[in-house]
Amino acid sequence: MPDAGWVRAIATIALVLLGFVVAPAAWARGGTPLATCIARVQPGDAARAMFASPARFDCRTPQTSFGGGDYWVLAPRLPQMASAGTSVRTGSVWQHRVTLYIRYADGAVRQTGFTSRTTGRHLRLGAIIQLPLPAHAAPPVQLLWHVERSLNLRGIVIGATLVDDADAARGEVVTAALYATFAGMCLALLIYNLALWAALRQRFQPAYCLMVLCLLAYTSTSSGLVGQLTGIDNNDRLRLNYLFLAMSAATALVFARAFFERRVFDGWLRPTSDAVIALLLGTAGAYALCAPRFAAIIDPLATSSYLALVLLVVPILWRAARQRSNYLWIFALAWGGPVILAIFRIAAAFNLIHWNFWIDNSTLGSMAMEAVLSSLGVAYRIRLLSLERDDWRQQESAARTLADTDPLTGLLNRRAFLDRAIGREGEQMLLIADIDHFKAINETIGHDGGDEVLRTIARALRAAVPPDALVARIGGEEFAIVAPLPSGLKAAAVLERLRRERMPHDVAVTASIGACFGALLREADWQAMYRCADQALFEAKAKGRDRAHDVGALARAA
């Protein structure tokens, strides 16, 4: 389970971020909503005649019920605020040509408009089309749109709003700051995770970076920024928007598979997630290539793929809970908001709820929250990996120590001693110590007492040598010490330390020591040095035991 501090910190960040995104954006998107009525275009229709024929317009039936085609859309009454310096805003949908007619209080009718190729001149952030009303002496009282070749998947003219140009300009600055903040955050997260991936090589990090790149691409199209900067045909921008949204959703699922432990997606969940990814990319690609043909068939399929993705979240969380995943809680926190908002977007796409600017642009807030919380999730996972790595290192160190250590005395064993001794630079002093008459000691106090004697000797040897010395048990009752010659290690001093040691059962224990010094760069040097020290030990025992014999330099001894 996560630390409570982590949960509180992440929840606080989420709330602050939500307020940061929603509060300025709510102020930025003001204006007065306009009621609209629909009439299908008929041969011989003219704008003035349509203004004079309000009975032809249907003000109750939802726009999407009319299907695709050419339409008149009437805003019967404008508020008194309508005057010079006023614009009308609508949401961006698939249209070939839009002509806006404005009737003024003095009966004059003027017009403005755009085509799908010229939409970029009027596109504002949030994929909002803003048309300034032509200046006129009298105030405008009615608006009439003539929309040609509308797909009408989300509506013919959606989100019609009358705004003051000065307020709209200030709102555009705020919205630009929000999108710039989101883009900067994504770039920072991208660089941060690429750097971490270069260091840690965790498989979820490139998946996360790919998801962030797709989100940046999707945001550039859904916000209308691409249209503003490039003047791309607006319908082509919508194709790209479909494609990048599907790529963002697909890479989010790829990231989830890489973020959780492998066992979470074992079994049927892995091929099912593969199928959802294929459905997302396949339907989006089909829409981008085939629209407007077959759009009425492809669009519901594409929306269904997002529904399948949302439904897949349930078994993912269930499996993660069953598998006791360490990352379940952070994933649920990070993706809870985007999943909930995705449900609203799916409902709007199926025309179960009316189009809404906030739902259509919910990606900015939800994905900003997701990006921050997911980055914290990545940091939390790296923290767990760090703890696992430290634990593994401790276990490895303990295992290595166990493999290198004589289990009875705690000294180095012969293999570890030779690994560390051979190759030391400079001249080295080698001492070979052997307990005198150890067999008799075992017969007197038993093998347990003999083992205690060995442990006592080991403690005395460790206490008698300098810090940079190596001490090992290399045989039954034989010990070896290697230390740099300048350290001043003396065989006689070591022997004297052994003599002062109190032995188990107060049994009398003596030892003999042979010493020699020389180079220990190679295996041959060790063999020569060991023969020299062993010969010195033999001479010490031959002279009566309980003594040390130092033959000096190896070359002189030879």
Overall pLDDT confidence:
85
Residues in β-strands, percent: 15-25%
Largest sheet: 5 strands, antiparallel
User: What would you say the CATH architecture of the largest domain is?
Assistant: Up-down Bundle
Q: Which strand order spans the largest sheet, edge to edge or round the barrel?
A: 1-10-4-8-7
Summed up, the domain count is 3
Structural class: alpha+beta
| Count of distinct strands | 15
Tertiary shape: rod-shaped
| Amount of helix | 40-55%
How far apart the termini lie comes to 67 Å
What fold name stands as the CATH topology of the largest domain?
Rhopdopsin 7-helix transmembrane proteins
- SS element count, helices: 16
Spans with pLDDT under 50 lasting ≥5 residues?
6-28
Radius of gyration: 41 Å
CATH class of the largest domain reads Mainly Alpha
Summarize this structure briefly.
This protein has 16 helices and 15 strands.
Layout: helices, strands, pairs:
Blueprint: H1 4-28, E1 32-33, E2 37-40, H2 47-51, E3 69-75, E4 86-91, E5 97-104, E6 109-115, E7 123-124, E8 128-132, E9 140-150, E10 161-164, H3 165-200, H4 204-222, H5 225-230, H6 234-259, H7 269-290, H8 295-322, H9 328-349, H10 357-360, H11 362-404, H12 414-421, E11 424-435, H13 438-464, E12 470-473, E13 478-484, H14 491-500, E14 511-520, H15 523-542, E15 548-553, H16 554-557
